[in-house]
Amino acid sequence: MCGGVEISGRYTRSGEQLKIYFPNPRAALPVLGSEEQVVWIPWGRRREQAGKGPAGGWARLSSVEEGRWEKYGPTPVRIPAAKFMEKDEAKVSHWFDLAEGAMIEGLVIGDGEQQRVYVITTDAPGEHQWVHDRWPLISF
After folding, report:
1. What share of the chain has pLDDT > 70, as a percent?
2. Are 119 and 106 in contact (CB under 8 A)?
3. How confident is the model at residue 10 (pLDDT cuts 50, 70, 90)?
4. Residue 119 forms beta bridges with which residues?
5. Which terminus of the chain is more solvent-facing, meaning fewer CB atoms within 10 Å of its CB: N or C?
6. Run of H or E including 61
7. Is the pLDDT of residue 35 over 80?
8. Above 70 in pLDDT, residue 32?
9. 114 three-class SS
10. Which has the closest alpha carbon to 136: 72, 22, 62, 58?
11. Cα-trace Rg, the chain
């Protein structure tokens, strides 16, 4: 389901390597804006956080395709991660590298201070279903 991401290189604020975990209520992800400009947006909404939009940090691809997110006026975005993390049933973390040029697909909802980014998820590839049944949607 993508519980963490690693961002590195030109997409970080100062060029350092960052690991960002969804459980952190201050978690934010970089999204690519116009002209490849990076904008940092809070990652999802926790149940205890005020604001609009669903609790959680993920949007199932099937629900996006069915139009369930339309009421939020979503904007498709790309998240320039180097790696992402999934936890297995035993809560053991597993990190997966993204290929050169690959990015995680996401949705941004809300305006101004209320903006949130949600990672779009799909079924895990067969060889990784032992880790988790959901996987971030990755594109090139």
Report:
1. 97
2. yes
3. confident
4. 58, 106
5. C
6. helix 61-65
7. no
8. yes
9. helix
10. 58
11. 14
What would you measure as the largest C-alpha separation in the chain, in angstroms? Answer: 41
Query: How many alpha carbons fall within 13 Å on the CB side of residue 41?
Result: 27
Non-local (6+) Cβ contacts of 92 within 8 A are none
The residue whose two tokens read 């400009």 is 37
How many whole angstroms separate alpha carbon 126 and alpha carbon 50?
37
State the pLDDT at residue 107.
Answer: 96
82: amino acid identity, one letter: A
Tokens 């993508």, residue located = 2
- Residue 125, SS3? coil
What six digits make up the tokens of 78? 């790309």
pLDDT at 78: 95
| 77 exposure class (CB count in 10 Å sphere: 0-12, 13-18, 19+) | buried
pLDDT at site 13: 67
Q: Among residues 14, 28, 20, which one has the least CA distance to residue 95?
A: 20
Q: 109: part of which helix (H) or strand (E)?
A: strand 103-109
Q: Which amino acid is at 103?
A: M
Distance, in Å, from the CA atom of 82 to the CA atom of 76, rounded to the nearest integer, reads 19
